[in-house]
Specification:
Layout lengths: L10 E9 L4 E8 L5 E7 L6 E3 L5 E3 L2 H11 L7 H17 L4 E3 H15 L1 H11 L5 H13 L2
Helix pairs in contact: 1-2, 1-4, 3-4, 4-5
Length: about 150
């Protein structure tokens, strides 16, 4: 690690500890040339995920959009925001771990619905009705019947 004070390329690590709830490591270092101390942070490199939308356009994955959709589906429901944030984190981590750099919106939507089904059935139906674009009461009833059959 290059010293920010003198530019020397060698330093020694004096202290290491987790930072940001374990998402990174904080290291105190000392330059072997000028003996000044400085702090560095080590994080896991995450590659960007590109979302392929229904119309074929592409945009960067946005965890906040996933969270907003779930919050909207859970309005006036007894679902804690912390649970929704955890679900959004799990989905993002699952996408990162898949090593696929491009993912279709359908895949993300199915992952959200899968987790909402286990969290709150009403929120699941709300999300599914928007996501699957129910055209009439018949398609809505089909989804409800599938949900009831799984119980």
């Amino acid at each position: 690690m290059k010293c920010p004070f003198c530019g020397y390329n060698e330093s020694k690590v004096i202290d290491s500890r987790p930072a940001e709830e374990g998402a990174s490591i904080r290291r105190r270092r000392e330059c072997l040339s000028c003996a000044k101390r400085f702090t560095t942070y080590e994080t896991v490199e995450s590659l960007p995920i590109v979302v392929i939308k229904k119309d074929g356009s592409r945009q960067s994955f946005d965890r906040a959009k996933v969270l907003r959709g779930m919050i909207r589906a859970c309005e006036k429901r007894p679902v804690a925001l912390a649970d929704l944030e955890r679900i959004a984190d799990e989905i993002e981590q699952e996408l990162q771990n898949s090593m696929e750099r491009e993912v279709r919106t359908e895949v993300i939507g199915e992952k959200v619905m899968e987790r909402l089904r286990d969290t709150d059935e009403v929120a699941y139906v709300r999300f599914a009705s928007v996501y699957r674009q129910f055209k009439d009461i018949g398609t809505f009833m089909q989804e409800l019947n599938k949900l009831l059959a799984q119980k």
